[in-house]
Design goal:
By secondary structure, this protein is of the alpha/beta class. Helix content is 35%, strand content 25%. It has seven helices and eleven strands. The strands form three sheets. A seven-stranded mixed β-sheet has the order 5-4-1-6-10-7-11, with helices on both faces. A two-stranded antiparallel sheet has the order 2-3. It has a two-stranded antiparallel sheet with strand order 8-9. The longest helix has 21 residues. The relative contact order is 0.17. The model has no long low-confidence stretch (mean pLDDT 96). The structure holds cytidine-5'-monophosphate.
């Protein structure tokens, strides 16, 4: 079974205040940290990185220098995240049966999460790495509470999200035809009635969205480096 990793990294960084994918996080571009476990994973056959048109050449050069023999493609993204993902899936190897999609902005993904996300697709159309809500969840549209949702049934979606490639392409087509915009790919797979499994994620696998998240990421990397020094 061939698995292509798709790494959407073509966002504009609106909520962060700047494009962050290439910003140095403890000495290395954010994208490097995110790609590392995919480059090391035996379960991933190729990686397709999706970036803004203007960053194609520079990204290709940087990625080539760390690819260590694994096939890595770099393609241009689109306006919406799902446009970027579609471009990535279209560029993936025709022999791939699964695609493992992971946000460039989540640098603490691990080989273990990647493997679990792929294994969960053995008996399903796809899988979503997610964590259970620790907080009580309120539903509100205008800051007045409408109801409380049982938190044991609430899962907060992360990535990797791995899908049957053929079915994901059908779901992407359906989303385009019916003008559905999902904040993740699972949403458009769910709209097709496909069977999506949940895989227990990790609170460290957060998405760097706001400046405070960047500081949290730096603190974790410094802590990890200290741990490594102690173990040496
Ligand atoms: O916007 P969101 O938080 O969902 O972004 C998640 C990931 O999708 C980020 O890594 C971002 O770079 C990427 N993205 C993209 N193309 C877009 C918008 C977001 O590749 N048009």
């Amino acid at each position: 079974m061939n698995v292509s990793a798709i790494i959407p990294a073509a966002g504009s960084g609106e909520r962060f205040g700047e494009v962050k994918q290439f910003k140095l996080l403890v000495g290395r571009p954010l994208l490097f940290h995110t790609l590392k476990p995919f480059l090391q994973s035996k379960n991933i056959h190729e990686i397709v990185v999706v970036v803004h048109q203007d960053d194609l050449d520079a990204t290709f050069r940087d990625v080539l220098s760390i690819s260590a023999g694994k096939s890595v493609k770099v393609v241009a993204g689109g306006k919406l995240r799902q446009d970027s993902v579609k471009n990535g899936v279209d560029a993936s190897d025709s022999n791939s049966t699964l695609v493992c999609i992971h946000d460039a902005a989540r640098p603490f993904v691990t080989e273990d999460l990647i493997q679990k996300s792929i294994s969960a697709c053995e008996n399903a159309d796809g899988s979503v790495v997610a964590i259970q809500s620790q907080d009580t969840v309120k539903y509100s549209k205008n800051r007045t509470v409408e109801k409380t949702i049982a938190r044991e049934n609430i899962w907060l979606a992360q990535t990797p999200q791995t899908f049957n490639k053929e079915k994901l392409l059908l779901a992407l087509d359906n989303a385009e035809t019916n003008q559905l915009t999902g904040t993740d790919e699972s949403a458009i797979m769910e709209a097709m009635g496909y069977n999506i499994k949940l895989v227990e994620g990790d609170s460290n696998n957060f998405k760097i969205t706001k400046p405070g998240d960047w500081m949290r990421a730096e603190a974790i990397l410094h802590q990890q480096a200290q741990g490594n020094l102690k173990n040496d």
